[in-house]
Records
---
Amino acid sequence: MLAYLVRRLFLMLVTLFGISIVIFLLLRIVPGNIVDILFAAAGYVDPADKANLEKELGLDQPLVMQYWHWISGFLRGDFGYSYVSEKPALQEILPRIPITARLAGLALLFSASIGIPLGVISAVKQGTRLDYALRVVSLSGLSLPSFWLGLLILTASVAMFGQMPIFNPNPQTWLEAFATYAVPAAAVGFRSAALTMRITRSSMLEVLRQDYIRTARAKGASDAAVNYRHALKNAILPVITVIGIEAAFLIGGLIVTETVFNIPGVARFLVEAIRWRDYPIVQNLVMLIAVVVVSANFIVDMLYAVFDPRIRYTD
Amino acid sequence: MRSVWTLAAMAALSVLTASTITLAGEPKQGGVLRMYHRDSPANASILEGATYSVNVPFMGVFNNLVIYDQHIAQNSPDTLRPELAESWSWGNDNKKLTFKLRQGVKWHDGKPFTSADVKCTFDLLMGKSQQKLRQNPRKAWYSEVNDITTSGDFEVSFDLKRPQPSLLAMLASGYTPIYPCHVSPADMRTHPIGTGPFKFVEFKANESIKLTRNPDYWKKGLPHLDGIEYTIITNRSTAILAFVAGKFDMTFPTHITIPLLKDIKSQAPNATCVVEPTNVSTNIIVNSSSPPFDNIDIRRAMAMALDRKAFVDILFEGQADIGGTMLPPPQGIWGMPKDKLETIAGYGPNVNANREEAKKLMQKAGYGPDKHLAVKVSTRNIAEYRDPAVILIDQLKSIYIDGELDVVETANWFPKVARKDYMLGLNLTGNSVDDPDQSFYENYSCGSERNYTNYCNKEIEKLFDAQSQETDIAKRKPQVWEIDKKLQEDVARPIIFHARAGTCWQPYVKGVTIMSNSSYNGFRYEDVWLDK
């Protein structure tokens, strides 16, 4: 197990190194840098001014040097300065992380707390009206884009209550906090919940047909004991995998949700930074996300062993 | 007797009503004006900016030497008012403009304002300073200024190469704040210091911009507001819903499209909304340096095929203006009168007749029903650009031109245009001052950096200079109209239409005036107050 851990950690580092090169190169392949964009916005270009600005920002250096400056800084925890705001990149990124983390955490919580129980119910009640209704709900969750759902929620709340759940950095009441985080989390988490529901249902159905479930029933175990103690515990592995993958995909959903609900999190900030080709922000932020995703995958793999005693990683 | 009592009661009532009106009209102090901002500006430096995303939120931090009256919608030479300059005078030969400066004005950090600050600001703009602006989009405005000289702490003079009365108009633009000498251009990008009614508090990118009342403002009793807070909301639907729900006192200026205006009026019927021209023209840039548009006949045919009214009807439900380079009257000061405009080929009301003429020109150039000309119509990937480009392509079909839409990301748009890697382009041109000198020199002068098509006509250059030196507006106008007509006939940058847009505010917001011939000059907000 220890050797496996070490090997996985080594692979993590190699993966992150590869990701850093891909991020860096992709950003340079995208046409135009911040200097082009600033001058495009001004509607003119003076070659001398442009050269000065490129020199000031270090964009005149060879790519290898630019990469080295960035990655060595990242490893030291020096994220450089945002080209746009001219503030330390870390100072720009850090306050936004908890906001997105709260949203993502709540969305995942929503996904698991809604998706898993409803998936179990749907499987247990297979072929009933309730099953069909839940399947329609899950299908709609997969079909509705989160930005559309978000706009629908906003429009409905304005039309019905004359209120707008817009981001409040310092919520004073429980209701304000709820409106700030829970509503957008539900909007973005609905899709994950639907996916979780479908995976739970199919996984449960497979497990419920196994011999040991029949044996448990024959021994007189209650429905609840069979469904939750025996079936769900064995059906949960693929669900955990899906939730782990969804954690990585969630950032995509959060970009639009943060835009629609005007939440100043890292997801929307990242898109704006890409728009400006603000390399220090984009590179460091994507690397941080990569670290989180790679770590999440690692944790999911470790959780397998916790949930399924049959799985023990050996060489 | 009864009628006497009735009269007395009516008189008392009318006095009461009159006093109520007076009270309601009396500005109240206090309150924070909450607005949304349509996007996150690159920085806070107005001198380096070229979009009103910068000068709307930060104009209140500063003062100009002179300013357009903030309560008259139409900017004109008659509405120029002194600000940091108490008065101005022209020398006998109209080549020296001298300003007497206001005394006792302090920067937000407590340092005194003097003539040195004025000289510093314009040396920076003219590129004569040790310090440099990262970008200097309006350097050309001061090409006729030889030097800035100071005489004591409170007098400053602009020495000109030749008379240029429009200099005052450019000094009155929201784009011409006076910067302090003691703060570097870099610091002005992140923490601007001004002399204006509001002090900068913070700018969080993609989040918010906050200004607070300057308690030491040199205009006693102003501003009325305790502050202004902009929440940056890039999603227009979210922003408008928030305004409707009462989260904001005002929309971002001219951010409301004509179709959206109906939605707002239905959901927030008490809101005050105005629709004004933005002095932004939608136009066609033509690459006349390579085939097929090096052929003047094809250029003219294209210009004659335009059905401008259709653009206006489809995109603005009829609420936009047709004109030449200069914004059309009545809001535009210098635009051609309708009868003159309609003498230009392609501007006549009979579109079918225009197109028949255009077809003849195309046939002369070798194209016809059996041989269509294939062109790419390049434009930016923004709805305001894309939508008219699609209509343009549809209209070009009528004269044997098959257009293909070429959508270009913003980062690529300008480099693509600069290297002439396009055939036709659908472009938007914003004019920050309604004055021919700004528009002609910036967009049509030989060698100007913003003259995207490299149009260069030495004869017209002479006319540019002639109108520029004319001090009599009545004499200058016909000269301007003649130049504008020639620019359209040369197909220098065919103008399709001049856009209009809406701004809304809650009924308790008082003292807001949306400028009708500029989107850049009306955001000092020192007189705005909240009646609640």
---
Amino acid sequence: MNMLSEDDSLSVRSTVRPVEYPEDDWLALSGVQHYEFCKRQWALIHIEQLWTDNARTVAGDLEHKRAHDYSASEKRGDTLILRDLRVFSKMLGVVGDCDIVEFQASEDGVQLHGRKGKWLPYPVEYKYGTSKTNNADRLQLCGQAMCLEEMLSCHIDEGALFYQRTKRRERVEFSEELRAQVVNAFADMHELFQRGYTPTVKNQRGCSNCSLKDLCLPELMKAKTQSARAYIDSIVAGALEEDLR
Amino acid sequence: MRQMLNTLFVTTESAYLSLENENVVVSDGDKAVAKVPLRSIESILCFSYKGASPALLGKCCEFGVSVSFYSPRGRYLCSILGESNRNVLLRRKQFVLADDASACSSIAASFVIGKIYNSRWVLERATRDHALQVNVERLKRQSSILASALKEIKNCDNAESVRGIEGQAAKTYFYAFDDLILNNKDDFYFERRTRRPPQDRMNALLSFVYVLLSGDCKAALQGVGLDPYVGFLHADRPGRASLSLDLVEELRPALADRFAISLVNTKAISPNQFEVRENGGVYLNDAGRKVVLAAWQKRRNEQITHPFLREKIPWGMVPYVQALLLARYIRGDIDAYPPFFWK
Ligand code: SF4
């Protein structure tokens, strides 16, 4: 998956990235899913703050409810289950929530405030629907893991995605390659965010089931309607011609 | 394209709106007269003095249902719409363009080109559809003056002269407007546009329909995150929703004027559905307003093909689509603002 090559807007990406992003500049971690799906969609939602709460996201929210309840955190045997845990990373400049982080009691683990023993974190993200073909969910999960690593000074090898529709847990290994993609994606998002730049429409197949299509107007890309100026001129010219007849 | 849901019109003067679960309940006195699920509507137009409960308004904001209040006689009071001011970069860009003379003149020209083009086709249509009843010669003459106004705008490089041409064109158009009225000529006639107050039935009807169109335009602009008070054609004036007025201009002939004329020509509205007040002002009465609102809702659901996007949309969506195109132009996605051309 090549995330960086297609967008002209990224060509001016600065080579100097901050070591740490100030809190005010943190982006929503979950935005990486939008970004991976379509850079413009991410910009419309996060930069332009356009968001239509369509039926699909409402349904998603309802199913999400249970996972998102910090007070429902519990301990089961050797596993400590924390729900709805807020995580952040200064290096990535992101903040978000983990649906569930399972901590396994382990000698290799880290100490947690108010808990005896040592624990190894294992993030689990609940997803509406079924496993996707794109990398979006994996990137988000990996981003969460990187946050946890930074917060707890530890290393996390893997986590899991749980798909509600299929009730399947999918293991995700946090490879170097995946981590690099996360780093690059957020660096590019910060760059776009700072410039307040919304990438132009790239006609893609995803447009037809994109929840932002009515605000994005992918039709603007259709070859014939691309220049509004030419369109206006031709209509006016036509009107004058009719008059001559 | 986005689905257009229904509008709830509340015309009973004494009605009060409240929330029950996720429904809007319309009550008159102690009696609940209607109950409508909020999910099934996208706006509420309330012509009642009693208004609505804060709980309902809060829920409407949450659901993205806009609520507009009018006096029972149709004077616009206010509207509410959920969080729509988040797109701060868009508004900043809008203000920057509004301060830039050349950008202003180009956007203003788009609005006026749209207005003149559409005015002209209102006249042209009448010569085709009613050749035997109308003064074809006069309509053709006015139409050709409008055509040359279009040519003039092309050479305009400042908003001031665009405004000048617009004013002339409006006169040219209204000069032939009376020709469009085919029925009840004793009761419905048009000499000139009077607004404060409207002095004849046709003006009363036009005024009421313009209020409806303006409300739609303002909600549309707010809905896409633009500031309806900062315009390009209409200069800033405290309290004036200049950008709404800009957008109204291009839509007026095709959406409002034709609609008003058709109410008269099809005899959907009758002379006794108006009242005359002490100041000589003429207004629709209760029955008249009901007729207009019902017809307006019906018209809003009629499908048209948007000439630029080439997509079928209900005409009630036209203000929204134009607002969106303007927003996308301001954000740099297209190289000009394409007005809505009707033919
Ligand atoms: S409609 Fe297409 S281009 Fe627009 S945001 Fe959605 S996926 Fe991206």
